[in-house]
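Query structure, 849 tokens:
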């Protein structure tokens, strides 16, 4: 147990550090269980700091010896670090510590994965490597020497001397300790080069386990495109002679932007047509870009403290989304991003874990790498850009990079550059960083004498600790579509700042439908009473692709909610409206696939709960299946035509065009499988030459309970490939019909290949169960119990991943009394575990509060 009742850390209590660091010199003598770390750190008292003794963070370290300016010292050691008297002038701290990487199952600090040493220091892992002021506002250049017989020895920065059994690295760019990294192993490189716009020749390497080297080409290509894009779009060039990426199998998150040495979860690097799906390729591209873009937004300009996490994450997510949009098409990318935002962030914002984009307190910072900080943080950047307009955006960004390069900054610094560059008062806009909760915008409209009158109201819901809210500045893009399908009003940009506003627009028609929140111009819930014929009109004719899709989704949602609530039959109006979209080959296939997709069960449950109906997971699941079946019956010919005509003739390419065609074909297949007994899917699962088609077919078979043979064959083919085997585990649980995913998960957790200590495998089963709404919420509580059992088991080994997964329970108050009781009991059981980690106990405590 880390702490009985750990006290929260508060933003309001920020104080400057007492000591700054001028230089860090580290030597690692690597050994699986007895690694020695020698640190020589040049400190200097900060005249603006609070003074006092030298205070260093440190956890799980065995101090061998320490000295100040060459004189041995005996610091006062406690569980969180040490304190020692130090001179009131610059001095040299030297310390040798011993650590045990092989015993490090938490995957923070220096740990081992398949015989390879690697590190994860964000947010507070460096303190598990040596004593240090482990806070992001202490920045220093690092020199590192690694001693080991392993063939590949890597750290941040540029390579220095190397010889038998050692290598040296030097990072000239001052950085906080969370960006430190070290890797040592028997690795093989996929190498390339890039010449920056400034003429710097950069050696690029992707380091992987031998055998994986033929799966790196796509990640390398994505890296080079990211480097070129950041130069072209943001004027930011790379600043070292090498850029290394390492793939590791054991990793808590997606990837990490360590300076010059990005470390990736292997699943976000390795891809071949036979092993990775189109979705995997798209994620690899996005994450490679994200980590690379952090070199400027995160590394060159970092965060003053962890409350400012969204400063680097919101901006970097925004940048990676723009990049993917430029590379793959903005319409589809925006729809995907909004789907993700609603599924993860809106859910978070509506429950007990709601927090502002910039939280004001935390117990364990690792619990705040959330959809709110990342995805809502990115939405806030998008809104800022809409509000300051294109010139203001460019001027503000230039000022940001000029003014703050090399600094550790705050959200106030970020907003000040836009205020200074544009002369605007952004104080109301700043509320987006401090107020939690998803605002609701209610819109009604009428046409009076050729004028479109739009009434808008905004409400920001109460969230934990924030009962009262002020109105936000909400950019609303809106237009209107006339009854004949022509555009009656081109997109207008307004910024809602008051609780109620009325806007008037001259309009050349007597009747039109308002298309509001075009492009999803703000992260809000839009409440606009539209009839289904109005929605069908927008689906068919809106010039805004996001709202075309949104109108189709609203039709589907409305049909499903009526099926769940009133036992209604599938709405023929929805089925009719799909017809033209399915038949129109001029519409991009990826877009048509998204129109065909139904809203997720969890999304529907949230809609029902917000509308005052207790969601019944079985009824939601049944309604979804009934609607999918009705779509299949009604459009069988069109779907069959799509399935037949969209087969890709040539060799597999992961590009957006062919990927979109496969997506539409897969969507058609999943509908058709409900009426053809799985015949097409069975044929495709055998004939497919790529993982996208094969997994789409397998998923369709699992969903209709016809997958036994196909699953056995898949296992035989892929049992020695860890990344593909994760898919085999996951599909059986995530796609299982009804509540059968709970039994599937129980069966799979007893499988000899269920290596639950590896986060990817754990997530493939336990995370997949959480993603299968009807199964997680199985009425007898088996889903809840299974997840709770495994979280209790994982927590002592890997608190960070256990805490993250515990959020599966965050919506417990939505459900019926029986399920609420079962979920509360599961949470209480986790909370009552002796020695529960600080990470998980914070999460469970917030959910039960
Ligand atoms: N900064 C990384 C994500 C990351 C965050 C925390 C970690 O450990 C607690 C690891 C990685 C990113 O945004 O990609
Ligand atoms: Zn990031």
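Result returned for the query:
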């Amino acid at each position: 147990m880390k702490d009985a009742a750990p006290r929260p850390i508060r933003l309001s209590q920020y104080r400057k550090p007492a000591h700054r660091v001028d230089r860090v010199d580290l030597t690692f003598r690597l050994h699986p269980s007895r690694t020695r770390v020698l640190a020589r750190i040049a400190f200097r008292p900060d005249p603006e700091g609070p003074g006092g003794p030298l205070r260093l963070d440190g956890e799980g370290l065995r101090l061998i010896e320490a000295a100040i300016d060459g004189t041995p010292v005996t610091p006062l050691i406690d569980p969180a670090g040490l304190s020692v008297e130090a001179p009131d002038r610059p001095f040299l701290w030297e310390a040798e510590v011993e650590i045990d990487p092989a015993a490090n199952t938490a995957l923070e600090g220096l740990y081992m994965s398949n015989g390879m040493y690697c590190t994860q220091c964000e947010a507070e892992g460096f303190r598990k490597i040596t004593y240090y002021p482990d806070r992001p506002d202490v920045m220093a250049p690092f020199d590192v020497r690694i001693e080991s017989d392993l063939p590949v020895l890597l750290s941040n920065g540029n390579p220095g001397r190397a010889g038998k059994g050692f290598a040296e690295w030097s990072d000239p760019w001052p950085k906080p300790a969370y960006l430190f990294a070290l890797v040592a192993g028997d690795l093989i490189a996929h190498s390339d080069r890039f010449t920056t716009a400034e003429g710097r020749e950069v050696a690029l390497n992707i380091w992987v386990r031998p055998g994986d080297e033929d799966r790196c080409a796509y990640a390398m290509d994505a890296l080079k495109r990211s480097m070129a894009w950041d130069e072209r779009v943001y004027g930011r060039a790379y600043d070292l002679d090498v850029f290394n990426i390492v793939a590791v199998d054991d990793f808590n998150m997606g990837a990490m932007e360590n300076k010059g040495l990005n470390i990736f979860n292997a699943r976000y690097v390795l891809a071949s047509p036979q092993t990775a799906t189109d979705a995997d390729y798209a994620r690899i591209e996005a994450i490679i870009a994200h980590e690379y873009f952090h070199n400027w937004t995160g590394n060159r300009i970092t965060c003053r403290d962890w409350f400012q996490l969204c400063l680097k994450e919101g901006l970097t997510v925004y940048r990676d989304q723009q990049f993917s949009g430029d590379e793959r098409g903005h319409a589809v990318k925006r729809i995907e991003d909004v789907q993700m935002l609603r599924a993860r962030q809106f859910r978070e914002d509506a429950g007990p874990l709601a927090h502002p984009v910039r939280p004001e307190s935390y117990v364990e910072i690792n619990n705040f790498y959330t959809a709110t900080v990342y995805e809502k943080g990115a939405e806030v950047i998008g809104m800022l850009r809409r509000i300051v307009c294109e010139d203001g955006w460019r001027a503000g960004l230039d000022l940001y990079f000029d003014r703050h390069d090399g600094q550790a900054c705050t959200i106030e610094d970020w907003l000040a550059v836009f205020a200074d560059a544009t002369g605007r008062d952004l104080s109301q806009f700043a509320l987006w960083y401090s107020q939690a909760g998803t605002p609701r915008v209610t819109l009604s409209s009428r046409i009076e004498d050729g004028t479109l009158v739009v009434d808008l109201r905004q409400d920001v819901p109460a969230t934990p600790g924030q009962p009262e809210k002020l109105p936000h500045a909400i950019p609303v893009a809106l237009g209107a579509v006339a009854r004949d399908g022509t555009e009656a009003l081109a997109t207008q940009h307004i910024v809602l700042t008051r609780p109620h506003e009325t806007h008037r627009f001259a309009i050349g028609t007597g009747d039109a439908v308002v298309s509001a929140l075009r492009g999803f111009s703000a992260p809000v819930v839009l409440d606009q009473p539209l009839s289904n014929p109005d929605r069908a009109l927008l689906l068919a004719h809106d010039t805004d692709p996001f709202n075309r899709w949104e109108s189709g989704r609203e039709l589907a949602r409305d049909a499903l909610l009526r099926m769940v609530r009133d036992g209604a039959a599938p709405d023929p109006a929805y089925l009719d409206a799909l017809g033209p979209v399915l038949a129109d080959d001029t519409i991009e296939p990826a877009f048509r696939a998204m129109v065909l997709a139904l809203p997720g069960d969890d999304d529907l449950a949230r809609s029902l709960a917000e509308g005052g109906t207790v969601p019944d997971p079985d009824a939601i699941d049944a309604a979804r299946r009934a609607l999918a079946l009705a779509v299949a019956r009604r459009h069988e010919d069109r779907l069959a035509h799509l399935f037949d005509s969209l087969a890709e003739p040539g060799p597999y390419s992961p590009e957006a065009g062919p990927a979109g065609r496969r997506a539409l074909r897969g969507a058609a297949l999943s509908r058709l499988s409900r009426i053809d007994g799985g015949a097409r899917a069975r044929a495709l699962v055998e004939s497919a030459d790529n993982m996208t088609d094969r997994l789409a077919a397998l998923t369709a078979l699992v969903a209709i309970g016809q997958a036994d043979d196909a699953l056995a064959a898949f296992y035989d083919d892929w049992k020695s490939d860890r990344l593909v085997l994760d898919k085999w585990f996951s599909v059986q649980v995530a796609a299982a019909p009804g509540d059968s995913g709970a039994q599937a998960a129980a069966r799979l957790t007893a499988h000899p290949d269920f290596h639950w200590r590896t986060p990817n495998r754990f997530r493939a089963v336990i995370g997949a169960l959480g993603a299968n709404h009807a199964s997680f919420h199985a009425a007898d509580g088996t889903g809840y119990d299974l997840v709770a059992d495994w979280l209790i088991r994982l927590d002592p080994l890997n608190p960070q991943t256990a805490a993250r997964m515990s959020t599966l329970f965050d919506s417990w108050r939505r459900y019926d009394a029986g399920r609420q009781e079962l979920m509360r009991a599961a949470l209480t059981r986790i909370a009552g575990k002796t020695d529960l980690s600080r990470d998980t106990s914070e999460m469970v405590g917030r959910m039960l509060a």
